## 1
Amino acid sequence: MQNLMQWSWTLGLTLFFAAGNIAIAQDEKKEKVIPIKPAEVKLGRPVEFEKDILPFLDDSCISCHNVVVDEGELVLEDVPAMLKGGKHGTSLVAGQPDKSPLYVAAARLAAKTAMPPMPNDAEAEVLTPQQLGLLRQWIVEGAKAGAGSAERKIAWRPVPQQANAVYSVALSPWAQFVAAGRANQVVLFDINGKQKIGRLIDPGLSTIKWNDGLMYPDGAAHRDFVHSVAFSPDGNWIASGGFRTLKLWKKQPQQQQQLALAADVTALAVSADGKSAATALADNTIQLWNLATGKPAALLKGHAAAIRGLAFTADGAKLVSGSADKTIRLWNIAGAKQEGQLTAPADVRAVLLSKDGSQVVSGDADNTIRVWALPQPGNNDAAAPVAELKGHSKPVTALALILPAGTQIASGSEDGTLRTWDLASKRNLKTMNLGAPVTDVAARPDGGALAASATNNIARIYDLNGKQLAELKGDVNLTRNVVSKTDGQTVAKQQFALADAAVKAAEKNLKDRQDASKKAGEAKTAADKALAEAQKKAKDANDKVNAAKVELDKKPDDAALKKKHDDAVKAAAKPNDELKKAQSGKTSAERAIKLAAESIKTAQANLDTRNKAKTAADAAQKKADADLAAAKTQEQAGLKPIRTIAFSSDAKRIVTGGDDNLTHVWDAATGQAIDALSGHGAPLTALAAAPGARVVSAGADKTLRIWSVNPNWTLAARIGAQNNDPDSLAASPFISRIVSLAFSPDGKLLATGGGDASRTGELMIWNVQDRKLVRTIADAHSDVVLDVEFSRDGRSLLSGGADKFMRLFDVATGKLDKAFEGHTHHVLGVAWKADGSAVASAGADNVIKIWNVETGEQKRTIANYTKQVTGIQYIGTGDNMVSSGGDKTVRLHTASNGRNYRSFSGAADFVYSAAASRDEKIVVAGGEDGVVRVWNGTNGASIFNFEPPKPAANAQANAAK
């Protein structure tokens, strides 16, 4: 039988996980089953499996009968598996098609067994009479596997648009993003923002033709279904696995552009269309920029002191500036000239334009907010404000217009307050105290919230009623470092406790051995004494026998002497027997002493080893304590004044900047820290939102930088498919699908699992940076490797396979350390407990098993699933686990007692994959229904469902029919 790589593959083979749910609509519309009459076959040659049979099996059968989704335990991917059959026996009887269940089902001779069921979401069609004739003739000819052809090219087709099953999900390291393998796409979702932020697109697939158009008009990650996906521990890499191809995607720098300035920036504005920016410089000039080209435009001169506020008109044609020279100026962008001017009674610290552009509002150093009519071109005369808003007790530092109505504004002041005002009534609506001078304010574009930053190292989000929604502070990277070090300390404590318990057990064992030795010594003393006594008694008795014999020898016919001799012999029998017993007792006692000595030596060696391990664990714990203390010190040192704040244009993010030189990105709804972007070499002085989820930052390092607030990963490497020809798999190191992936804890290694169904498991370790194969672990499993996971220390690799085994390998050598046997069906998932003391396995036999790593013994079986348990993960550093199952459920269990303490409902079909955040607050899952579900792990409530795309009526994919 040829390897899978030598087959004529079509896309049907890649419907990897469609677990018996292909006929979703059949309950709604019952099929009228009509038997198919096979056509007469006249090929002029024997029927070949790879050429004639496999292509239509791919289209109609394999989606439900493959190595992982084996409905009825039947696999139809190769002839040996077909002959082996499922739980009801073989599917083929060579030479007898009418006795072959596969033929009977395909010919639709019985309604209950007719396959495939119609209709179905995978677009699988019933066999044509010609195809059925080929199948029948092939069976008649003996159902031979055939020799195959290594030259045969894969016959790719578009993925059916209805096929949206999610076979793999992965959480980013801090549970902000989900990567989901949906059909041949890898889709990225923002959990907090409850939005799709992108897809991974392989540009090499975008130009592939199909019929009269493109095969993947909207782009794709893989040509077939994405069977596995994983984030690296730092989130900078995503790995995805498909048919014979591994792809690595690298996170791109979020800084998109950097512009050099002539001086430090004191104020910043971006036009509504995002095409232009204005930077107020420390030399009192205004530099205009074309953001599309990154080129400087006009330089505006006129102010005589620091410029503190800038605002574009809605059409971007004009610019308003406010300065410490007590003037507000109107500039014509196209002509690069001043058109009008207002004179204020105090330094102008901030400006904004009304929604209709007819008025300008200034925040002034005399604690007053002033509303002015926009000066007309050529009018530089003194004019009085049309309104004054008073309430602040110190200089006004920042202003923001509250849209969409535009009838209210927000202001910040050195008096530490954020205030909202109604422009028509001039009333102060709400006052919020930040506790320190306010440096900047921002209004969410939809008007739903306000944000303000202050010199006391915080920023806050408020609703319009003045309720605080969130507080923002610190450097998320330093905070995460504290969390990581806290986890490290927790694990170190657990491992020290394990080491201490092991020492105590070893000490007890040694004492038991010493006690046994003492008893053996006492037994030896007693045996020596008993032997001496027995020897004396035996000697006395034997002496009497000898004396009687001497007398009898002298008078052999003396009956009395003969009786005396016989009586002496009889009397000596017992002492001699007791002597033998005493000698045996001494021998046993000596052996016991020797064994006791050896056991003491072994126990002492074990104790020495355990003590060394405890010493190492103690040192590791002390280091973890010191690392955590240092991390907390760094976190506190990272608290710096926040100088500027802005909402992103899509209202999903807040961005802050200040004295730590970082551009901080936060979730606008929850205030959760998302990222801290480095680039500026000095404190940030201003921020402004730009369309397309971008933000512009300015700093005291004389640079202007443009950032994307959402991350983006692009293709960095293909392993398997050639970089210059993504169609070619001739040089692929993978024999079939890559169904499991795992990064090492340091992110330097990537383990891949797959294999050839019913033949061999394939387990490889790769160097992420140079994409080179580090090691192939030969004969890792005798069937497909379905899951892999590194231990927390990165020294061991756990794998589970279709051969029903879970195995543990040494990463450095590839040597098998331990095999765990106990499942009665495929091992679909494996997981490490953080402290390394236990591992868990999930099986197609509907159970979860917990194992002792050191002994290899099974500790517990958890059996409350009614279908396959498709995945397993220990959560954080504790004893809780998340798992998914074919019974449409996702569950949380405690490994030590097996308690199912929470279940998550909502899935409409088979669930293939689940993951949880380290703190258990987020649980995600995906399955056959194509929905990526997100729950609150602490209470089971649904957070959001990311639905699959709706199929277009005339989609290109339908051309595959």
## 2
Amino acid sequence: MATAQNSTSPVNVGVVLDMDTWLGKMGLSCITMALSDFYASHSNYKTRLVLNTRDSKRDVVGAAAAALDLIKNVQVRAILGPSSSMQADFMIDLGDKAQVPIISFSATSPFLSWIQSPYFIRATQNDSSQVKAISAIVQAFGWREVVPIYAGNEFGQGIIPFLTDALTNIDVRVPYRSIIPSSATDDQILAELYNLMTMQTRIFIVHLWSTLGSRLFAKAKEVGMMDQGYIWIITDSLTDIFNELDPSVIDSMQGVIGVKPYIPQTKRRADFTIRWKKKFQRDNPNVLNAELNVFGLWAYDAATALAISVEKAGTSDLGFQNSNVSKNSTDLETFGVSQTGPDLLETLNSITFKGLSGDFRIVNGQLQPSAYQIVNVLGNGGRGIGFWTEEHGIVKRLNLTDTSTYSTSKTNLKSIIWPGDTTSPSKGWEIPTNGKRLRIGVPVKDGFSEFVMVTRDPSMNATKVTGYCIDAFDAAMKLLPYAVPYDYIPFDKTGATYNDLVYQVYLGNFDAAVGDITIRANRSIYADFTLPYTESGVLMVVPVKDNKEKNVWVFLRPLTWELWVTSFCSFVFIGFVVWFLEHRINEDFRGPPSHEVGLIFCYTASLASMLTVQKLQPVITDVNELLKNKDNVGYLEGSFVLGILKQLNFDETNLKVFNSPDELDELFIKGSKNGGIAAAFDEIPYIKVFLARYCSNTAPTAPSSIPFAQPLSPEPPRSGGPSSVPAAVADAVSTKDRFVHVSCRGTVEAFRSSTLVRATVKVPLLTFFE
């Protein structure tokens, strides 16, 4: 054993960590255990890593000074660390100049790249590798806008370009970026949260380190931003360290969604965790309930990778070239260059082994990403609800042999408890706290309540608005990927017309108007109209002559009188013959089958035709006939049809107004000569409602929209949330795809069937005895 020990060559390596932090203590502990475990199982190796530890004291300058000391005065062949991305930036330049690999297991910023310096080895996941997992979650729930909240330093800013690109690729807007200064006070955090509350977006992606993130969520709960309606997504910077967070912080994060690298559970990892807890507790007796996280596993694997690489690189020429070093000097001009640096770097970039964190493989200075686990903060920590992989997207279970296509379906996730202890996710967009609810104007009228009906409850001091148009508008608004609160405001001004209602939208008294409002050229000057969802056009309805048989003896009509007499005589004659023959031989008999079948079918067809086919003929077929006879005609009160009738030269004395289907039917019963009407002109939807009730005495003679009205828009709504309150209505109902979606789901047709055609026509029994 002594011989083996004497034949090994010590190789100095540096360790630069924040020794007074949890990450620094855990990292150093895992590094020392990694080397102890590795050389215990590889006693034949000729090299032994000797750790030279320096405390960076949570300072960028301190980290750079420690690295400079290790390179110049100790001539280390590699450095493990530093703890943060900010500290790594200058250290990378030092390593590049001295050809000393800088191996970090916790610097995650994408700004630190292999392109910047080939001597930087990232033995942890790049922050940019998780943005696709986050964007997949956003896409799965159909959110259209998100606001990133990140630290105002290199760590926070590094992920933003990649996150923005990933969101843009799925047509998600980033209307605002919330930057939290590294030294932000509680008052500054509160001010920023209040600013976010005034915005429409309710989806936030948080990329902060533990201390700053903990304070943010504590204040978010304090101001009510952890209630229902808000969605919070956190990156692995917080998800990986749940065990370190105070229980009060976890309590303030209930309902948050997060992503973190998936580390498979193995027996080797479980055994190491037990050993590590015992050792860490001995070394740090003041730290209670210590829990190992993924950064400790990466520290273990990084130390193992360095030990393997140093052995493979060899022990020859381990010195520095052109080094003119004076003791305790930190003069950059006296830098030497490591002779083993290039070989060691090449070995590190080609290493592959099975580590505690899973498959450990470095390519171009970067640890290759693995699957991400999606977690939901519930209770005392995170609960796994699914996974994301580069090949398959969101999946409920990991299956490396699965050949299914990429998926972003939320059905692949387990049940989620959202902020506010609800299972229903927010739509991600709401009227801001300093905003207003939409005011939707609706007409108030007496008749044709199937379209819009306004009822008031004096006892409750409340107004209820129902009808076909209301149902269609509600269905369209529900399709929006964000919540838009609105109220229906009755427009009950005496003598007001639909033109007046549309003009109120133009004046800004209403954000939109919903009802049986027809698109007219004069109205389009003042408001935009959505796509129509009913037929439009004007029809004329007139009484009809009904030639259908209405007599109790109608069953005699299929046969002529002569045929009835012949049939009767045949019946008597056949009866006599039957009697004459039966009383002697009693044999079976029947007439020719063809005669019987032909007679039966002829009779049934004729009788069925008389009983079912209505031979209706309009009393009047031409408008000119009405003008010539100076007949009275009807129109709906407040309708633009009055203007059309005047254009047709109808005298005002011949124009009769009606307000409901019942009034229209009474006018038809009276007739033109008795103060009634000979014809009525109205729009197709109203005519259909009338005919659904009274179709036995009237018929239409010749059709073709009832849209919603909204303020004029200079440009179409954007792909995300609307830029203004009225634009929310436009986004809901002015796109053809969205209305097609409502129609395909049967929503509009169901409303039409249940609301517009409720009446059934019943024919009285006495009709047959007229």
## 3
Amino acid sequence: MEVLTRLLPKLAELLVGEYNLQKEVKGGIKFLRVELEHMKAALEKISSTPAGQLDKQDKIWARDVRELSYDIEDKVDTFMVRCKGGKPGKQHGFKKVIHRSLDLLMQPKIRHKIATDIRDIKSRVKEVSERRNRYKVDDVITNPVSITIDPRLLGQYKMATELVGIVGARDELIRILIDGDEMSLQQGKIISIVGFGGLGKTTLVNAVYEKISAQFECRAFISVSQTPDMRKLLKHILYDLGNNISDETLDERQLINELRQFLHEKRYFIVVDDIWDIPVWKTIRCALPHNNSGYRIIATTRNVKVAEHAGGAYNMKPLSPHNSRILLNRGVYGNDDTEKSPDEELAEVSDKIIKKCAGVPLAIITIASLLASKGRNKMDWYEVYNSIGTGMENSLDTENMRKILSYSYYDLPPHLRTCVLYLSVFPEDFEIEKARLIWLWIAEGFIQHEEKRKSVFEIGESYFIELINRSMIQPVDKYNTGTVYHCRVHDMVLDLVRSLSSEENFVTIFSDTKHAFASTTHRRLSLQNREAEHVSTWGTTSMPQARSVIVFSSAINQIPALQSFKVLRVLDLKDCNLSKKGYSLKYLGSLFHLRYLNLSYTWIAQLPKEVENLLFLEILDVQCTHISHLPLNVSQLEHLLCLRVNSSTIVQNGIWSLRSLEELSWLCIGDELMDGMEGLGLLTELRVLRIALHTDKWNDKLVESLSKLRKIQTLCIDGCTGGEGNVGRLDAWVAPCHLRCLYTEEAYWFSRLPAWMNNALHLVDLSELSIAVRELQQEDLKVLGRLPALRYLNLAVDHEDLGILEKFVIGAGSFPYLVYCMLKGFVVPVVFQNGAAPRLARLEIDLYVREVREIAGSDGGFDFGLENLSSLQEIEVDFRSGGAREEEVQEATAAVRNAAQIHPNGPTLKIFG
């Protein structure tokens, strides 16, 4: 379906004068446009209908149309590439004459080829159209889809999934794990939680882990997946435990020995999530030694035999009807802990839906997201109820769960269904970077750029948000900033998506040795296999119709030869260490169709000169490589939207010609580039700009250029050492109203809080702020506290050098959404009043030892309002001794520990200095 959406505008473009096509060819193109528009309408109906409701003829016809559309797009793109691309950007003298002569000779051949292709395509389209008329596939009926975007995101998702109905089970497991006499506490304990997929096993063990993990000397939480790479898994456990093994040569047995030695006499707590079979458990268990230090292990599995083998089986129970109603109402209405439906008319159908979901949280969350998009129409709700199948109330099996998930999938609009199918390229339990996913969607042509006020990436973000709201993906706050930069796909959703993707030949996944190299046409390849059986086959297999190849590190030995591709648009080799494998990028410049190239973490030393041939390239990511200089000819890639390089990679002044850039990470500014800073102001489409300063020189044109970039949403300036000379250099800059993230704390100091921050309505999107303000006033803290979307704050002041001993207060109602806060350089600690920062979970502060002693109470208590932070989970304190005696440091440390211990949440405490 998505290919027809892209193809029709391309056919329209062929009719314009610059291609100078023959009259007969133009007539054929007009015929194709009309026929394909009708096919698109029919295909929309078919793709919106659950596969179980389609007969075989419908499926065959739809498959034929999709494959035909791919072939047409390949031929049209090839013609356009030959007409517009594949030529060096700047030629001079004799070379220019030669290339112009060759162009004149080639143009008739190119146009003759497209004429032949159009005749062939026209014949195939007629054949498929006649088949549609014979079998009347237009009779398929589907229902219209309504779309709403709800930006509640992470907070509501966590509330819905982490709190409802698990407190009792969490506390029961904690009692089993840590209650008992001294002797039992010294003995090891294992609990294995078993239950159907979607019941919330991971959510439950995560709640237990967060509650008690701080009591153990070392701890780890690992996800296993269905076909784990045991070496990678064992290394992951070591890394989480704090033993980062850099030796890549260690085999499985050596890693097991390393783990056993490391944990020999330690009190450890390890969660092993989602074990599928007994051999995997045996290997993991072998690596975790039995000792008398009181270790604890929790395993989760769907397999009863695995649970019985592991021991300590704990059956995961479905939610009660009471908690099921709370979860449903929360997802639909946003209500907290309300069992009663706010709409009496919907109470009866709500109960029916709850009964069908049988207490499975994933089913309830998915259906709630769908119902929220339907409004409060009883008939629509009954339609959902009648469509999700029967049997859930009697049997918790995968097929019934899939019915519920598939209904939510088919309720999505066509463009979102395409984006969901694309999730199948990622392995199970993979944390998907939001930006990477959206750039892939863009390169594949899935984003419908119809809203001129938004960039194509911003439209992709709205797709991402909608998929979270529909519970098709799960948000991940990887950096604990309260902002979603990653997502996961629940394994049951991934199971459904892979099944649908396979049926449509949308993505071909090679993840284990059971996959054979059939004669099927491969359009998109996802290589996830860690075995090496197929290496030689890949090297000799031609894949002229493959348009996307994504290779994960475990399949590095299977990277196909680049010369085997003819119409490749996406090449993603992220995390594949090509420097060790000696993989050649020699033929990279022949991939004329390429839109997306991700070589991050491949550690290559250089890009081939022929990269200049990739004139249609939109995304180039070479971060975490050994590339020291970006080739000058990259400046000829005028379609580039995203350029990512190392913060130390040197770029030339020619980069200012890339006027389409929306993201530039990083821009390494040395002495030479600093002299040409006026060029930066030409990149007016930039949304994301990260600057790395490698010079002590200063040019006021940097601020002038930054002031011209009014679409900037993320600005990061890093790399310059501190000092008097850096104070006030950014004072003249005024942030644009769409700013989301500002990071300048490591580079430049504002002399005072910028005046533009006084207008909270001007900064409604600012969610992350890391700045250094040399002199801060109490009123400035109030200004920051009024920022409506701020979730992350890193605030540094220079009060020690200035001798400012003022006591600062954060009052009630301030920082309503702040999740993560770092306060540096306040000589007298900031005090949080009751009602301040109600969502603050992590606090990092500097404390000056003597000042802490002065405000400590007679009982050794230390009151700067920690008890008023109702969501506090983590505290990190960096002591500044300032010549204090050892006993003074100990007293201050005791005061801080006491403040943390009496907090009702029992937050974890880390002390440095």
